[in-house]
Amino acid sequence: MGMFLNSLVPYEQFQDIAKTRFFVDKSAMIGEIISGVTVDRQRYLCVTRPRRFGKSVMANMIGAFFGKAQDAADIFAGLEIMRCDGCHQHLNSHDVIYVDFSRMPENCASFATYIERVSKGIKEDLIQEYPELELDADKAVWDNLQVVFERERAKFVFVMDEWDAIFHKDFITERDKKSYLEFLRNLLKDQAYVELAYMTGVLPIAKYSSGSEINMFKEYDMVTKEKFSEYFGFSDVEVDKLFDIYQRACKNAKITRKSLTEWYDGYYTAAGSRMYNPRSVVGALTDDQISNYWTSSGPYDEIFYYIRNNVEDVRDDLAVMVSGESVKVKMRGYAATASELNTKEQIFSAMVVYGLLTYQDGEVSIPNRELMEKFDELLLSNESLGYVHNLAKESERMLRATLAGDTKTMSEILKLAHNTESPIFSYNSEIELSAVVNLVYLAARDQYRVEREDKEGKGYVDFIFSPERRGADALLLELKVDSTPEKAIRQIKDKDYALRFRGKIGERTKYTGRILAVGISYDRKTKEHCCRVEAL
After folding, report:
1. Sign of CA dihedral 422, 428, 431, 435
2. What is the pLDDT of residue 302?
3. What CATH number has the domain spanning 387-536?
4. Element containing residue 194 per DSSP (H, E)
5. Which CATH code for domain 9-220?
6. Which sequence spans correspond to the domains of the chain?
7. Which end of the chain is more exposed for a tag (fewer CB within 10 A), N or C?
8. DSSP track, 262-316
9. Are the CB atoms for 25 and 57 separated by under 8 Å?
10. pLDDT (tens digit, 9 = 90+) per residue, 107-153?
11. C-beta separation of 202 from 336 below 8 A
């Protein structure tokens, strides 16, 4: 056992996860990998996913299953992989070289120091494992591996986690990047000693390798490849099971099943399945609290990084997406392959790859409330977003005016929309109007759960503002184009949208505050907004 060759790390890491209450068995993936190698001779796999979507868990699982470092029968007993015909013979029967490329040498400030840790470490492990071969530490690591193969017929499973981590380091130059790709090519490509090479990363290989350095890898991303999609992220069925465990464990459970969907669902796989963010679901159930688990684990003010080079081109789309709508985009390869993100397609493509947006049927959208809160912060804090920022900053005043029934102030704030020539203010439909209304009520999300187009009573209401605090006022908001706010109010009453906040016999059971019907209309000829607020 060494630092890289047959390391104990993947076993220990996977064992820790497998013993937790909220462990989800994804071991069937190993069976697919074995089939791919033995039947299709597919030895090179690269799985890319956003951060914290289970990449390292799966890498550790694969290392723990194949590796000889530790008998893992007790971990895998009862897991799905042991039901796979012929798979059990591969358990702990392979030499595994496991490399976590996100780990750095002490005081590392150069690529030479970084890559020497890996190269020298593997050579030292080989020399220790095969002392009789008298391997030469001065020769390249791939030359030593070749000697081992020629003399011992030994093959190796390579498990490489976060292969692209080095590209995010400040000290890495363009020349270093090429050297790194050459290192991987020499280590892996067309090498007889490679039984399997399994890599993970955030960005696709094409982002960095425009040539043939490591084109032997078959890549599997979340958006375009269906294969392996069910193994990263949680499905509805899996979250149902975890929620049952949570309810049995917590006597006074605070989390609802609906809140898990609202906060952490919303990602789509290439197969069209919806997936939950796994880190956030486990974090919430473990802490018995809904919170921002994924977005708080990284610098998600970097959302602005992706749009800063072309604010004007994406500003209107951001306003529409923050209102809960999808935006049509011609995605090109779905991968952030450009060195600079200048076009809308490049920007949104990168945001999909990083998990900041989700993509389905030619449209991008904000997946869930956890991400929505970060986009809200973006709109409220960046003046370069122009009118979008200005309207969002008015949202606190808009909420106060609505609760006070000050329709004059409400109309004045909405009129600010026409200080711009933005196409979203053409109001050719209620979608554009709803985008603007959403902006001017953005601050309300701190106090309300805002829902769109929810079926209540006998129809659909445009916005429902459900107060987080008991005793606060609830809002039912209906929009009309080329109509009147009175008709909007009438629709709220006639269709009995207020049923949401009342018991079956007309008694309020949850909300002790007022239920306010809010009607907002826009006349395309006069370009005037009219508002009305009534207590129900």
Report:
1. positive
2. 62
3. 3.40.1350
4. strand 194-201
5. 3.40.50
6. 9-220, 236-297, 387-536
7. N
8. HHH--EE-TTS-EEB-HHHHHHHHHHTS---SSGGGTTGGGHHHHHGGGHHHHHH
9. no
10. 999 999 999 999 999 999 999 999 999 999 999 999 999 999 999 99
11. no
